[in-house]
Here is the input.
Amino acid sequence: MKNLPPLALIAALAVAACSAPATTEAAPADTAKLDASGAHPATPLADAPFTVQEIADFNEPWAMTFIPGTRAALITEKSGKLKLWQENGPTQDVAGVPAVAYGGQGGFGDVIVAPDFAASGTIYLSWVEAGDGDTAGAVVGKAKLIQGAAPRIEGLQIIWKQDPKVTGRGHYSHRLLFSPDGKYLFIGSGERQKFTPAQDMKANLGKIVRLNPDGSVPADNPFADQGGVTAQIWSLGHRNILGLAFDDTGKLWNQEMGPKGGDEVNLVAAKANYGYPIVSNGDHYDGKDIPDHPTRPEFAAPKLWWNPAISPAGLAFYGGDLYPGWKNSLLMGALSGEGLIRMAIDGETLHKSDRWDFGQRIREVEVRDDGSVWLLTDGEDGKLVKLVPKR
Ligand SMILES: [Ca+2]
Ligand SMILES: [Ca+2]
Here is the structure.
């Protein structure tokens, strides 16, 4: 009996045995300090559980979506082209796309397929439209994609517009996402670098809006009874939303480019106010202070934030098994942060699990139905790349 180790030691050995196996899944205790801070150090790409395979070249690619049940994808180029990339065929230009107001941060934006795409061929696109007096604003349209030797879209119909159009060429956001049940279209609508519209209920800027697939307003929207663009609003107090994703439990997450040192990932709730520009864990780029989130608990605080800035771009839920420990994560690209960030989802909490240093600006993250992760790198020599799991 006296040779048995004390109970505390047995417990410690048991914990050590449990945590010893090599895994990329960071336990909450490992990331608690990072999660509560803006810090998030990058690790070399060589340590990642994948290698990066370059697949195709694009000119300022902005967004992509795989066409369900195929090995093809639609990819927007900011200057105004829509490309149909095929794994086993040529990359084609899709004809019939709208003219876009290209400049600054704007041009062609997002592309997604409708929930009923298999039957209808419907896709949704966002782009920037010029207005009077050097103003501009994002719009969203739907059209039917015709594939084949000469792919094209037909019947393009604009279903939503940023209101009001304002001067400047920044913070359009114009990210699109359908709810998992296919009933609602969510649009990230940036505050157009004008700050105060994010809190203005008479503007749909700085908001996440929720629409029916035809662009009409769902009767159960939180501000539906107020009419006008107010009725479109699902959540407010956002800055520049560049990624939206549902997880497999139906929670909606968004990321947004914050002010200096205030990039955020939020859990999106109806009617919630995320506080910009009244509060932010970052501060204005001109040096002016913005009170941090804890000073105003009535505003919803980010689940995670980054300082220095990583400039988030793209957001995707990962539920697959191709990369060890990634199941139930959010994947997010970083522009100035030049990499890929993985956040483990733990109920309504997120953890800073991985940040890999690509040395390249990442614009878009997409998961194919075989569980493989694909990225678009940013810029005039942008690439479609595939993350090939290491064996
Ligand atoms: Ca996408
Ligand atoms: Ca602050």
Observations:
- Residues 242 and 313 are 5 Å apart (CA to CA).
- The first strand starts at residue 43 and ends at 44.
- The first helix runs from residue 7 to 19.
- The pocket of calcium ion (ligand 1) is lined by residues 63-65, 364, 366 (CB under 6 Å).
